[in-house]
Amino acid sequence: MIGIAVQRGSHFGQAGDLYDRTVRLLLVAFLPFLVASSIADGAREDKVSVGLSAASRQVDLGDHPAWVGEKATFTLRNASDRSVSVVKVRTSCGCAKAVMPDGDIAPGKGAELVVEIKPNTLRGPYTKHVFVHWRQEAESAGDGEAKPRTGLLRLTIRGNAKPLLTVRPGTVVALGKVPIGEQVKRELLLEAGPSRIVLGEPALPPEISLEMVGRELKPGGKLPFSLVFRSGKAGRFRCVLSIPVVSPKGHPPVGVVVHGVCQAGRPAGPR
After folding, report:
1. pTM exceeds 0.70 for this model
2. Burial of 261 (0-12, 13-18, 19+ CB in 10 A)
3. Residue range 63-120, pLDDT digits in tens
4. Domains of the chain: which residue ranges?
5. Which of 25, 179, 223, 242 allows an S-S link to 190, with CB 3.0 to 4.6 Å?
6. Which CATH class is domain 51-162?
7. SS3 for 107-162, per residue?
């Protein structure tokens, strides 16, 4: 390193001191403006980068009847300084339908997104998602070309769809191999959910008959019944019995599928 000694009182030394003092004064004078401008630019950049947001990204519907439609409402807000347009809204399953007003969302304004859970499409605890795709026209870049901003907002819906009733051990009855001309019997159970249930006259295929005492269940009640199948011609079979639900209204019939193979010989398994 080369050191340069400046003698005090010389012309060069005095000029250097004057230059240093001038630079310091300029820095002191303009520093507040530089800091304020930097903070303002940063705040503006943060404001623009937010785009579309939601007051809450999750809605919990709790326990609700599976046969009744439910709605979840999300409040969206444009927190930027330019309009935001919603390009597309999609759901993670066909059990939900998303509805929101058309048109752009102005700066500082909001819009409501309503998600409808369709009746009889969910059973038990569930977690579903809604994806909101948005777009925003950005300010022109240095080259004069406008560069749009895009984003994705994910929302979540949770709940527990309580079924009206449950068939035990299940709605599919596998009879396996059944000898031609023989009769097979299976015991089933209807369990009611949180509501009183009134059943209608069952619709049965020719091969099926039911042994059922009563057609009304109290909340949480149980109704045992027997399904009787009489085999016909040889080959595979698949038949469906349907038990209408009279009350509560709007619930689809209870369906039970029976399948197996009719063949000559001894049956496999207990009958």
Report:
1. no
2. middle
3. 999 998 899 999 999 988 889 999 999 999 999 999 998 889 999 999 999 999 999 8
4. 51-162, 165-263
5. 223
6. mainly beta
7. CCCEEEEEEEECCCCCCEEEEEEEEEEEEECCCECCCCCECCEEEEEEEEEEEEEE
